[in-house]
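Loading example: each entry is read as two labelled lines plus one structure line.
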Amino acid sequence: MATRNVISRKTKDLDSDYKWGFVTDIEADIAPKGLNEDIVRFISAKKNEPKWLLEWRLKAYRHWIKQNYQEPKWAKIHHPPIDFQDIHYYSAPVQKKSPEGLDEVDPELVEAFNKLGIPLEEQKRLTGVAVDAVFDSVSVATTLQETLDKLGIIFCSFNEAVQKHPDIVRKYLGSVVPYTDNFYASLNSAVFSDGSFAYVPPGVRCPVELMTYFRINTEGTGQFERTLIIADEGSYVSYLEGCTAPMRKTHQLHAAVVELIALDNAELKYSTLQNWFPGDKDGKGGVYNFVTKRGKAAGVNSKISWTQVETGSAITWKYPSVILQGHNSVGEFYSVALVNNYQQADTGSKMIHIGKNTKSTIVSKGISAGRAENTYRGLVKIMPSATGARNFTRCDSLLIGDKCAAHTVPYIEVRNPTAHMEHEATTSKVSEDQLFYSMQRGISEENAQHMIINGFCRGVFQELPFEFAMEASQLLKVSLEGTVG
Amino acid sequence: MSARGDNHNRRPLLKVRNLHVSAGDVEILKGLDLTVRLGEVHAIMGPNGSGKSTLTNALAGRPDYRVTAGEVLYGGKDLLKMPPDQRALEGIFLAFQYPVELPGVRNREFMKAALDAVREHRGLDKLSVREFNKLFQEKIGEVEIDPELMKRSVNEGFSGGEKKRNEIVQMAILEPKLALLDETDSGLDIDALRIVANGVNRFRGPSNAIVLVTHYQRILNYITPDYVHVLLDGRIAMAGGRELALELEAKGYEWVKEAVESGREIGV
């Protein structure tokens, strides 16, 4: 298998409104375009993976290829067919050896992170956030390692976990999202190149927020991370995921899989700030974000909570879900999805109640502006075994302007008569009266709109860690610039 | 308390000349004149539909109120050229007849943002959070609103009377030059009326002016106006002092109509 080193070119800014739109000039180790069994073997070999993992990837690939490139069609999204043979399935920044500290990391990478506003040193020192930065699917730096080591917390790249903790990976990989789950999950299982891994041992409360920043850099590259997080009995962990991608004229495919597992009495909180390039004002370029995220609240009294703020991507297709298997387990989903210009989002959650007295909450806030389409799609399923299950769902849509659209598609399936379900939904506009009232107090129209939208999102923002909430609010403001007046 | 007489030679704060305003296709103000100087309180009275609220909303720059003719000078500047937020920064405050709810926007954060903007425009430093909180608590206390209520979103879950009191809190914090009170007394019980009136009287001073729009003379028992104007069919039909309000109360608006029709001119 031939590999080639390419130096990515500096591209001209497509749209200066997208402030993360720079391309980093580093050498990349890149696979040729296209997908076949050899590519899968190549990726696995690159990672020096054990045989069982290669076999697992191959099974996934064979399952995927049987679907004959037929992507799922049920979502309310539109895009030209994706040529799956016109994508690089592996691209890694070239490094001589694994870095042992930040000073060993390629200075250009560090510079790239600095441009993103994530100075690793700063974060390490000031915020107490352990950052695992994934750059074109390969993790380059992990900080605050010592603190975590002392507590027995494992937080590393997926690839490193495969090497160092193969038993844990093997036990849980695919246990929540099997490789047969859906088209994109199969694809991811076959070709994932890296991702993030965390394991918190029994009784340990993780003292820092674990954070991973994802970024797509190389042009024509698909990004397929795999994230696996396990909260063992009685543990607690909060995990943050941030995403950015540079501006590209062409669409980029991002198909990640995230699996969360919470054992007895464990609590796992997963927060996402997704700001992949949404395409320009005319809908050119942008990331196709087709992601499978699912948690299994496997143990009694376990809790899994998803919080997401989504402002990016040309198309988002994503339904963070919780399987409430343990008795008294809790599943939560808090989401803000903002779409502008020609963005499309079909997103929501699934709560599958299996255990007794399980409880789930879904709070979804959709904001549409420009000519964008926003769909909430959710499933609440109460299995016959789930006596005493409860669900509360609230879906609010906010429209800005008169050319955008919001859709709500809730599915409710109840097979146990003791279930208690609540569903609330509203659609509103930022009203002229609200804007005038605020402006009459001296607040500019833009700030007034920002304030009203923040108010609309409050129920979700308050679920985010503080720094993330500030960033989320800022992101909404940037994403809506120019929609006023 | 009266500012009449000696105030006449000072430059007007607000000068409205021949103002015509339409809402939709309907002309509501048909050539209104009004001059307001600092230190003055003007009461605008009139029957339903005479254009009282149209006047205050047009002065505040509400969209949907179209000025078709006339001019408005505010501090010597052309008010009609300014967008609504600019008018607010320049010191115009409208106490809304129907205050608007802002779900999820906390009262404190809303007022801090407004005061920050206003102070910046006046060339003053922002208040620190501590200074602001002190001011906020003080002003809430003055109108006897439950502080717990003010922790909620702006006007959400407020009764009609609480909303009106909140308007007075906002006015007291922002310290405008020209306060336009649009039927602030309507829907208030007698205690709330007194509280609101006290708030207005505390605010009242030589460095500001008040235009108070009302149906009823009741509130004028608490807030003594320097001038009373009667608005009829989009124009000031009659003007006088405090005593005019009492006369109106006794004789009704029909009396003004008849007086106007019989060609009697009453004015300042």
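The longest helix of chain A spans residues 445-461.
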